[in-house]
Amino acid sequence: MLGVIADDVTGATDVAVSLRRNGLRTLLYFGTPPAETELPAAEAVVVALRSRMIPAAAAVTDSLHALGWLRGHRVRQVYFKYCSTFDSTAEGNIGPVLAALATALNAPTVVTTPSSPQHGRTQYRGHLFVGDDLLSDSPLRDHPLTPMRDANLVRLLRAQVTDPVDLLGHDTVRAGGAAVRRAIRQSTARYLLADATTEQDLRVLGRVLAEAPLVAGAAGLAGGLAAATGRGHPPEDEFSVTGPAAVLAGSCSARTREQVGELLRLGRPAHRLDPVAQPDPKTLAAQALDWFDTTTGDAPLIYSTMSPAELRHTQNILGVEGSARILERATGLIAVGLVRRGIRRLITAGGETSGAVVAALGVRGGAVGPEAAPGVPWIRPVDPAHPLLLLKSGNFGDPDLLATASETHHPVPHRTDPP
Asked: Are 20 and 26 in contact, with CB atoms under 8 Å apart?
């Protein structure tokens, strides 16, 4: 099997659907499973960690633990999946985790790229573009936790690792597999950041790297690897996506703000979480569930998404970590309460929000199903008591994604169970 270590929950769903789309039967686990876990038949297994925003040393520890589990199940290759916007800081976590995995796997040269053209992320001459803008000119410039002020990925990665970093340029990639193999063989760098602007570039890299012990990047390069070994079409394991739905939005990205704005424009029932007004997460969750019990209408929205100015105000009062902790705890409690009230489809927006929901519900893993948007699949948990999940990265999806994914003709049953 191909074993994937993803640094957050929505990134894990993104890479899982990329593998599935290219023909690999794919399992997805939230957190490293127990050692004795027996795996169903599959060609790929993805372990979703929550290591993107934690201290680098803890991220390394968690990632090596996941690697040990994957090696115990005899995976033939390891893929470290990070965000297509290279979300990180000078201190980590991408570089430290990559270095630890490379050492553990004795990988002499590791090729990596965050390029994911289907999401508008491309690398050219070592610089990361978001659509037509350099990363440093995109909304990620003002990310509240990992502001990305430099689009030069070689420079960014060099600040995080001690071994040499170099560029695998676009001209080489476009020249084909033989040129890429020759460049890798002749390189003295431990890490090579590969330019890629199209899916074809990623397929060239995937064919070259099919036997490499360690590869890293976003979902795009993982899809290139899968295309080199998979069937070329998704496995026939679709499942029905029906039942009462609710939306939990926590991301403050520009795209999620658009998506929340579309739900509000449509007049969907909506309740905003305000941690400044109520900093106790249990009370904050209870207020939201009380609102849910008295509202009418399908697919209600409960959200903490806010503008950059509102986010700065909240973080100035509660602190960055404090506000995140309150909202994640409250969102998890709300998710549990919604499921008890009959919700069978949960749509979440934001990596940390999705991680909090998965953890609160106790979802250990599931099957990857049809996509509601590129890189945003429905997930059917192994436990039928859990709802279907759509775990959306903050930046993913068209402006109407939350609206279309939560559409339902089923009435939402209201009960008054405690959260």
From this structure: yes
